[in-house]
Amino acid sequence: MWWYLLPIVIIGGVLVIAAILLGVLAFLSRYRNGALLRPMIARLSRFSLFKRFFTRVSTAAMERQNPELASALKKMSAVGATANEQAAQKAMSRLTPAERRAYLELAQEQQGQMEESTNRQIRRRFEQQTRSVNRGGTSQAGGGLTSRPGSKRKRKR
Q1: How far apart are the first and last CA of the chain?
Q2: pLDDT, tens digit, for every residue of 30-60?
Q3: Cβ 59 vs Cβ 51: under 8 Å
Q4: Is the residue at 101 inside a domain?
Q5: In a domain? residue 141
Q6: Residues 6+ apart with CB under 8 A from 25
Q7: Which domain holds residue 108?
Q8: Over the stretch 53-104, which tens digit does the pLDDT of each residue have?
């Protein structure tokens, strides 16, 4: 008679596991503004099912927060990423002034983030070079591998 309870136990276990996963995702999204969640989402986005889900969720969130920007991005995405200058200008002319303002603010924000990440990369490379010089090694601008004088590698034929 206990086997009647088996489906209830299985469904309860699945619900508990789903609640735990949802809690972990909520924690990761709050911790350091989602810094640990972003790589996970990037990897999951390789699958078309997850990619569609994430784009739908992000679009819905953007429409709630900034409807002008969401509308502008929809209109600009119709042109495509590989559009030429004339097609981009034509798409920009179709935007309302509020949409154009929101779109240009986003572009400036992304440009600032790109410059910041570039500066961070340059700063880290400089720190690595100074560390290697302080240790007595040679610094290389490319950060490549150094070959040892005694090591010989065999070539495959």
Answers
A1: 69
A2: 888 888 888 888 898 899 888 999 889 888 9
A3: no
A4: yes
A5: no
A6: 37
A7: 67-75+85-131
A8: 988 988 898 889 888 888 888 888 777 766 677 877 888 888 888 888 888 8
One-letter amino acid at 79 equals: V
Whether 91 maps to a domain, the answer reads yes
Q: Rounded to whole angstroms, what are the CA distances from 113 to 27, 43, 68, 78, 117?
A: 25, 22, 22, 25, 6
Pull the structure tokens for residue 136: 């007595």
Going from the C-alpha of 85 to that of each of 22, 75, 81, 90, 99, the distances in angstroms are 44, 16, 11, 9, 19
Place of tokens 């909520």: 26
Asked whether 73 and 110 are in contact (CB, 8 A), the reply is: no
Contacting residues for 69 by C-beta, under 8 A, at least 6 apart: 62, 99, 102, 103, 105, 106
Task: Classify residue 103 by burial, with Cβ atoms within 10 Å: 0-12, 13-18, 19+.
Answer: buried
The pLDDT, as a whole number, for residue 18 is 93
Residues making up the chain, counted from first to last: 157
Q: Dig out the tokens for 87 from the structure.
A: 């097609």
Residue 41 near residue 54 (C-beta atoms within 8 A): yes
